[in-house]
Amino acid sequence: MKRILFPTDFSEAATNAFVHALEFAKIVKAELVLLHTFEIPVYDSQFFPENYASIYSSIELAKFEMFKDEIPKLRAIAAERNLEEIVIKHRLMDGDLIYNLRNAVEEDQIDFVIMGTTGASDWTKFFTGSNTNSVISEVNVPVLCVPIDAPYKRVKTIGFTTRYRDKDKEVLRKILKIAKKTDAKVKSLYVKSSDTDVSDATIKEWEKEFENENVEFLVLPSNEVKETILDFILYKDIDILTTITHKRSFLEGLFDSSFSKKITKEVSVPVLVMHEK
User: Which is the most buried residue in 25, 40, 136, 237, by most CB within 10 A?
Assistant: First the structure.
């Protein structure tokens, strides 16, 4: 059985993403592992010679009680959506979120990570800050990022951005497997800039190789890559946008603050980040 790691702080954004996680778990027949982390503040023991240990204990107890109180709320959401059959496990960990997330991925043999985002600042930090190295670069599993303004709806169309590299084919095949489970169509986008190194022969080769799959290949000439992707999401009714981490500079160039704001506020679609092999 596949496992999905769902890091949560029990915020509105996380609760919204939880619905996506539940429905995705149903599609891929996976179980959910809920991860909640907290950091205990560092105190100088010289100022707390007698009771600093009890301070740590009280914080841990408070976090445990909060965690225990929130779990039934999430299970109620699952019940409301008739998804009680989804197996849900829990992890409460002290320490840095990214460090714990990385360990959980390894220890629980996680296949996907699904997490909520609240706005442009979160996306900017996620895609261009330290979280990128830890989650996207170091955690070698797909990561689905769900904007707070993206309510769950049945996935009918999955967008896939490609540069027509051989490595992209393996990712496309994985996306097609997911698409078949929800009867969705995949629309593949290549933004063909003036300095492209992709030949027409390569594009035709891909079309021939995947001619029996439910995928449509779109090649749009433009030097305005970000604007073209936004138009693609809007006018092709994309429900989930899939992109590949070719390298970190690609993410930094694509998900800058202005573009991430447009995706989260204007388009509000989940983004599934896949890894090249």
Answer: 25
